[in-house]
Amino acid sequence: xxxxxxxxxxxxxxxxxxxxxxxxxxxxxxxxxxxxxxxxxxxxxxxxxxxxxxxxxxxxxxxxxxxxxxxxxxxxxxxxxxxxxxxxxxxxxxxxxxxxxxxxxxxxxxxxxxxxxxxxxxxxxxxxxxxxxxxxxxxxxxxxxxxxxxxxxxxxxxxxxxxxxxxxxxxxxxxxxxxxxxx
Length: 183
Known about the structure:
Helix 1 packs parallel to helix 6. By secondary structure, the protein is of the alpha/beta class. Helix content is 45%, strand content 17%.
């Protein structure tokens, strides 16, 4: 099965959010603005997309997005709970119905004790919805960043569709990378 192009994923997510009358905010680390760029590349995105925070530095995750300082000290920025708090924080700070986030290691070196290709994506939404997916990705730095964008859109799409559809995302991605010689 060939995955849908990232731009199509962004368009599908925006269309579903518009149909539901919901808004979206983005918190990015390793993707450095790529999620927001994909969203704003879709005509009419402004009806849904509130904005984004690219919090590359750890202290910005804490100070702008409200990620707990003890968590960042204990585990570092590459962590599923950090991703969850980033998504919840950007949702709150930018006043959106849904918040999504990316954090991880695109390379070339490991970070916070995590190997290159370790990525966490998260969503936070209405009614207390909070979901995190752990991805193990292979490839170049740009490959990892692009697949992280795809992963966060897939996670959100699963939640917008009712939840359970997103469960295999992390596992499917992990199986794919293992088949390609995952580290």
